[in-house]
Amino acid sequence: MEMKIVGFWGAYPEKSEATSCYLLKSDDYTLVIDMGSGALSRLQNYINLSDIDAVILSHHHNDHTADVGALQYACLVQEQLKERMGKLPIYSHKEDSQAFQKLNHQATVGKVYEAKGREEIGPFTFKFIRTKHPKACYAMRIELEGCSIVYTADTSYFKELTDFSRGADLLIAETSFYKGMNGQKAGHMTSEEVGRLASDAGVKELWLTHLPHFGDLQQLYKEAAEQFSGTIQLAKEGLTWHNN
Ligand SMILES: [Zn+2]
Ligand SMILES: [Zn+2]
């Protein structure tokens, strides 16, 4: 499997970039994880939109869903041009029922994921854990052929996240704040917490994402590296991980 960063900013996108959006591919399946602001435009640097098989959303904050509406229009146009057959599935939890209903559209269909169990989407097995965040949000563990990727989505640190991330080949962790700040109230993690999470969970590689619009981002890297001695990458568009 292959994982690529399409958008990585928290809150709003910087010039010509995007908020949360990740592209997960196997040989014959293309899945988009979160669809933040600017994502639809940036995705086209890597795929044809008609190649998207499904979308999955961690939660319904705008920096993870802003381009869902634009994607629905794109699917509608593709359908009219006969470039897409059938409705595009958009997976989400259903705890935000008004937001969930909006996933049902002429060209897309909302699908509820099994947050307490496992969900098979294409060739991937998904497991979920509810995070600590002001809006209902789920972190995801994605497995295929013995490899695993964990995406924390938005959350403050909680100890079950360590078990959930245990032994992952890649941990994509939201790093909204710097060491010494308090992310608990806002529902976000610091660089120090993310580094410790990666270390305690024994992951192989750590990506710092959902980055803030203040401070020196390299500092986030240094602070995470004080806790975690494995490979760390600061998010940037196009950053790609392969399992081989
Ligand atoms: Zn966010
Ligand atoms: Zn959020």
Low-confidence stretches: none
Mean pLDDT: 97
Task: Report the total helices.
Answer: 7
CATH topology type:
Metallo-beta-lactamase, Chain A
Largest sheet: 7 strands, mixed
Small-molecule components bound: zinc ion
- The CA-CA distance between the termini, in Å, is 8 Å
- The structural domain count equals 1
Q: What's the order of the H and E elements?
A: EEEHEHHEHEEEEEHEHEHEE
| Major sheet strand order | 6-5-4-3-2-1-14
**Over the alpha carbons, how many angstroms does the gyration radius reach?**
17 Å
Shape call = globular
Per CATH, the class reads Alpha Beta
> Fraction of residues in helices?
10-25%
CATH superfamily heading: Ribonuclease Z/Hydroxyacylglutathione hydrolase-like
Using the 3D structure, state the CATH architecture. Answer: 4-Layer Sandwich
Structural class based on helices, strands and sheet pairing: alpha/beta
Oligomer: single chain
Write down how many β-strands occur, each being a DSSP E stretch of 2 or more residues: 14
Strand content: 25-35%
Describe this structure in words.
It is a single chain. The protein has 244 residues and is an alpha/beta fold. The protein has helices at residues 39-43, 62-65, 68-80, 97-101, 160-165, 191-201, 217-225, and strands at residues 2-7, 21-25, 30-33, 54-56, 88-92, 108-112, 118-121, 124-130, 138-144, 147-151, 170-174, 205-209, 231-234, 240-242. The mean pLDDT is 97. The termini are close together. The strands form two sheets. The chain has a seven-stranded mixed beta sheet. Strands 7-8-9-10-11-12-13 form a seven-stranded mixed beta sheet. One zinc ion is lined by residues 59, 61, 133, 135, 154.
